[in-house]
Amino acid sequence: MGGKGGPFYVVTDPTDLDPVTPRPGTLRHAVIQTQPLWIVFESSMVIRLNEELIINNFKTIDGRGASVHVTGGGCITLQFVSNVIIHNVHIHHCVPSGNANVRSSPTHYGWVFLSEFGYRTRSDGDGISIYSSSKIWIDHCDLSYCTDGLIDAIMGSTGITISNSYFSHHDEVMLLGHNDNYVADSGMQVTIAFNHFGEGCVQRMPRCRHGYFHVVNNDFTHWEMYAIGGSASPTINSQGNRYTAPTDPYAKEVTKRVETDEREWTRWNWRTEGDMMVNGAFFVPSGFGVELQYAKASSLEPHSSYLIDQLTMYSGVLVETRENNLGVLLPGPNNNVGPGIGNSGTGTTVPVAGQGRDSNDGDRGGDRDMGIFGMVFGSGAPPLSPPSIISSLLILCTILIFSFTSINGPPLLIPLLPS
């Protein structure tokens, strides 16, 4: 739902000078309002946060039509809220912040409360931190290079969908569940669908505790330790994904039960169904395999893993259509100019999401450099040109399948092709 039904709020000012008294026209001023808002951006911008951006209920942050980057101190916090949509935004190079007052609504500011033990003076530097919140949708975002997790959802959060996004250049990608002893996370339900976990991802895609998790139709092209991990008896339903193992012979396993004896984890409900295993990847299932056990971890019908290229080809931020002349440099992971830094100047470079993600992508192009405003294609593979609307429709048409049964014969599967 997000900000549906509310007025549009146009962000015109990329600054974040005062976390307590934000200027009208800034993203911070927009997200703290109490009424539903559909937040859009007047132009492409880099929003360098000084403190955590605390989002109020019923907000849609819609970056379509512009190149919107959120970076800096704390990044995005969803705390005791519901009905929030974050769409088409780059989130990266997030660092810890705190020891400061931060406004969370037009009538309240104070130290950010993020722990059941008391007030917390510093954030972890997550890209998106979801704390005791529900009905959250993160869609078509690019996340990379943060200090802690790219997305963390803890403390009883539920009703979360993470879809069509691109994750790269990060160690602990996604944490779902506070700790093994926090049983309030037992009701957590999260859907992870149509995402691409790409270059530089190490582990936690996701790492689950308690709860119910549907991992469906994602493309895992990189991990260094494992892809999906968990503890405290989470239910994990893996369907229609493609898992491409690294070359390391000791890192072929998709799954990891974290610090748990085998006699215990063999009772957990983890299943693989219709997944494609590439380069020696293997998934270790567990549990009793009873369909009823996965009812709360089943949010949509999976497509065949053979369609992963089509299903994830537009993962990440969608094609940016407005001219981008920002020409800025952002710090690397250690506040030095490093990987993922755009070139200075006033030229226009438009990234095209979903193409040339990495060298394992075959005909989709070569390496994708996580540049702030551009894309560098490597491995000798040429970049693909941006797809037209017509070609996109043709691709979708070839995916659609009509099934009908003749009177005297078996079912026939006929692809819907353009005439």
TrEMBL record:
Q: Give the cofactor note.
A: Binds 1 Ca(2+) ion. Required for its activity.
Catalyses: Eliminative cleavage of (1->4)-alpha-D-galacturonan to give oligosaccharides with 4-deoxy-alpha-D-galact-4-enuronosyl groups at their non-reducing ends
Q: Which domain of life is it from?
A: Eukaryota
Arranged from A to Z, the UniProt key words for this protein are: Calcium, Lyase, Metal-binding, Signal
Q: Enumerate the residue ranges of region (Disordered).
A: 342-365
A family per Pfam: Pectate_lyase_4
Spell out the family assignment given in the record's similarity comment. Answer: Belongs to the polysaccharide lyase 1 family.
Q: What is this protein called?
A: Pectate lyase
The lineage is: Eukaryota, Viridiplantae, Streptophyta, Embryophyta, Tracheophyta
